[in-house]
Structure formats: C-alpha cells, structure tokens
Amino acid sequence: MRYNALGETNIKVSEICLGSMTWGTQNSYAEARAQIDLAIECGVNFIDTAELYPTTPLSAETHGQTEVIIGEYINERKCRHDLVLATKVAGSGVSHIRNGDKISRDTITKALEQSLTRLQTDYIDLYQLHWPNRGHYHFRKNWHYNPTPIDRSSHDSEVAEILETLQKHVDAGKIRNIGLSNETAWGTSAFLQISGSKTLPRIVSIQNEYSLICRWFDLDLAELSLNEKVGLLAYSPLAAGILTGKYLNGKIPEGSRATIKPGLDGRLTEHLNLPVQSYVNLAESLGIAPAQMALSFCLARPFMTSVIIGATTQEQLQSALTSTEIRLNDDTLREIQNIYRQYPAPM
C-alpha cells in the first residue's frame, strides 16, 4: 500500500480509501466492522462517508446510519487517531435532509454537529461539500449540460460565506481540511481563488466519479489537479460494478446493486456491452480479474490521491485491495487507450 499527501497538507492517506455507502442497508454493523478490519490489516487508513449514506437505497429512515456504524466501530476499536476520516455535507435536492436546502452557513453548522455526534468524534479530517449549489454535469447530467452565466458577485459571496463558516469550524478544531465533490474545473478554481484572496481554508481534494468508462477528469480537471495540488478521490472506479463484467448482455445478478437501484443511476445503458466486454477480454488475457485491472488503471493516474472502493462481501474487498499489487505495463495501457478511443463515453 502506498500513501499520498492530501493536498499540500502533512496528512498521508492510503492510495485505497474504504467507501461506506452500503453500510446500514446492504451491510450490517458486523459486516462493516469486518470490512474495516480487513482494510486496516492491508494498510488502508482512509475511510470516506457522508451524512447522506447509505444510498442503497437512499431513504429518510436510514439517513445517517452509515456514520453511526463508523462511530460505533471507532468507539469499539478505540482507533480514531489511526484513521483519516472523511465525510460530506449534502446539498440541495434531498427533501428529507434539512428540507432540501442548499449548502450554507446554517446547513454546514447543523450537518457538521450531527456528523460529529454520529461518528463519535471531536473532529473530521476531511469535510467535503457533496455537490455544488449551482448546476453541474455529474450523475449523467453531462448529456444535457447547458451552463449559463451566473451572477458572479452573488456566487462569490456565497462561496466566501461557505469558506468563512468552514474556517470557523477549523479554528474550533472540528475540521482539519476541506474538499469538494462532484465539482467542475471552473467551480474548483473559484473556491481556490476566493480562499486565496481572503486567506480562508484551501481545498485539498476533489471527489469525482472516475473509471475506465467515465474519464471526464482526464481533461481540464486533471490539469487543475496537478498544478494546484488538489488530488482526485475517485468514486465508482468500477462504475457501480459494471466493470466486473457481471452486467454484460443485460444480466442483473440476484442481490446485485442493480436489483436495488435499477439502472445504477443512469450507468446501465445500451452502449456498455462492447466497451465493457473489451476491457474484460483484455483483463482475462493478462490473467487478472477485470475489477483489478480497472482499479490498477485508476491507481496509476498521475492526479490520483486515493481510489474509493466499496464492497458488500469480504471476497470483493480482498480482490479490490489486491489491485495495489498490480502494475499495468505500457502495452496494456496502450490497449486500454485504444478501447477508450473507440468507446469514450458509453454511459
């Protein structure tokens, strides 16, 4: 297991981050505990969650349960200082969380206090804004993304208020660092510019979707990430399990996430079969699992701080953790690029 700096901080996080969004629905506390134990045993020191979780499925009844499970684990194992813990404040659009209000001074303060209580901790190592208040192209919105000019003065005032609120909680010792999620290059740049001009907390990471079949980050965000030292925390590196090959030819295995979330948040499309089969065939020719090849590719990207993996079984988790031992050679990377060139945006 390798460790990377979180932005320009002195915090080192494992190249694999343990995701948690199934804990509380698909996984019980006992199963989550076993997952964390295994991950730590393999060198993982980084856990990512959100007040929104679990999301499989998302519901008002289970809201916050994932953080509760992590808090119980921390209390049982007495291991808080051994872990880098990341969580997120939800934005607008989720009616059962603060009536769907956007991220603001009040929502951050309320959400943070609730997360600290559920997590049974005094501080969060990385506090992230789950998605922007303005429009964005994530969650398959890229196909009808139509950015329009915004009132820059109003936007900058809103960002400044958010950063000033986060600064207050940093000063109080409740937050160590801040990050963005589901952001764009322009949005990230705006946060960096305003934080710099007002000497407010600087963004250290951005958590966006990234996989062999979702590579928007390779363009402007990659340049920003490398030059501003705002590393990627990649979520859905297996495209919700699609890159394992288990959904090929329309199959929906019993107990899979697609049985809980039909369509996998818009990922399951008629365009997937050829690219996924091509990646599966390439992995099999190398004698490795398709999931391991997909994760190894992500781990090798120059802008990557950590790849967030999720699992519902110990076997899945063990396989994912083993991906850190795989190095793809130049010939394989060329083959991956050839497939990508043919099928750049299949979902």
User: What is the number of helical segments per DSSP (H or I, 4+ residues)?
Assistant: 11
Instruction: Tell me the Rg in angstroms.
Output: 19 Å
Assembly state: single chain
What is the helical fraction, as a range of percent? 25-40%
Count of extended strands = 10
| CATH architectural name | Alpha-Beta Barrel
CATH topology group: TIM Barrel
Can you describe what's shown?
The chain is built from eleven helices and ten strands. It has 347 residues and is an alpha/beta fold. The strands form two sheets. The chain has an eight-stranded parallel β-sheet with strand order 3-10-9-8-7-6-5-4. It has a two-stranded antiparallel sheet with strand order 1-2. β5 (84-89), α3 (105-119) and β6 form a beta-alpha-beta unit. The chain is globular, with a radius of gyration of 19 Å. The relative contact order is 0.13.
What's the helix and strand layout?
Blueprint: E1 3-5, E2 12-14, E3 16-18, H1 29-41, E4 46-48, H2 65-77, E5 84-89, H3 105-119, E6 124-129, H4 152-171, E7 175-181, H5 185-198, E8 203-209, H6 220-228, E9 231-235, H7 257-260, H8 273-286, H9 290-299, E10 304-309, H10 314-322, H11 330-342
Parallel strand pairs: 3-10, 4-5, 5-6, 6-7, 7-8, 8-9, 9-10
Antiparallel strand pairs: 1-2
Helix pairs in contact: 1-10, 2-3, 4-5, 8-9, 8-11
